[in-house]
Write a structure and sequence with these properties.
Distance between the termini of chain A: 44 Å
Largest interface: A-B, 16 and 30 residues
Strand content of chain A: 15-25%
Number of strands of chain A: 1
Number of strands of chain B: 7
Helix content of chain A: under 10%
Number of helices of chain A: 0
Shape of chain A: rod-shaped
Structural class of chain B: alpha+beta
Order of helices and strands of chain A: E
Largest sheet of chain B: 7 strands, antiparallel
Oligomer: heterodimer
Number of helices of chain B: 2
Structural class of chain A: mainly beta
Radius of gyration of chain B: 14 Å
C-alpha cells in the first residue's frame, strides 16, 4: 500500500520577531 | 519562492490535540470526510497559494480572501493514506491557540502529492530564511 506522505514543519512556532 | 497556486476543494476542518502524527491526521481526515458526507454539502472550491510565507486561501467563486495561514503556524502536512486524493495540514489558530486540521480534496492523488511536496519545500525555505534571520 502507498505509505502516507507527511512532513513536519521545522519553523512551526518559531518567529523572527521574538 | 514566489509561491505556487493549486485549485482544490476545502472539505472541512476538525480540532486536534497534537501538532503532528500519522494516526492523528488520518483520524482527523476520516472525521472530516464523514462529516462532509453526513452534511452532504458540496466542498467549497478554493485556490490555495503556497509560499515560504505560508498558505493563502481564496474562494474561487468570489475571489475573496478566506484565510492567510502563516508558515510559522503550520505544524504538519500530509497526503492521507486511505483518502489519497486528500491533502491536509495542521495549523494553530492564532486567536485561541487551538490546533486545527484542514482537509482539501484534490482532483487526483498526484495533485495532492504535489501540494504536500510544495508545502514541504516552503517549510524548508522558511527554515533557511529563519536561520539567516536569527
Amino acid at each position: 500500500n502507498t505509505n502516507t506522505i507527511h512532513f513536519d514543519n521545522p519553523v512551526y512556532q518559531k518567529t523572527t520577531e521574538d | 519562492v514566489e509561491g505556487m497556486t493549486f485549485n482544490l476543494r476545502h472539505l472541512g476542518m476538525t480540532l486536534v490535540d497534537q501538532p503532528k502524527g500519522e494516526e492523528l491526521s488520518a483520524a482527523a481526515v476520516k472525521r472530516i470526510v464523514a462529516t462532509a458526507k453526513a452534511i452532504g454539502k458540496k466542498p467549497k472550491k478554493v485556490t490555495l497559494k503556497v509560499s515560504p510565507r505560508g498558505i493563502v486561501l481564496y474562494d474561487r467563486l468570489t475571489n475573496k480572501l478566506l484565510e492567510n495561514v502563516s508558515i510559522y503556524r503550520i505544524s504538519y502536512c500530509t497526503v492521507d493514506k486511505q483518502h489519497d486524493k486528500m491533502f491536509a495540514y495542521i495549523a494553530q489558530n492564532t486567536l485561541n491557540g487551538t490546533l486545527e486540521c484542514h482537509a482539501y480534496l484534490c482532483s487526483k492523488r498526484k495533485v495532492a502529492q504535489a501540494v504536500a511536496l510544495t508545502v514541504a519545500q516552503a517549510f524548508t525555505v522558511a527554515f533557511e530564511l529563519w536561520q539567516v534571520a536569527k
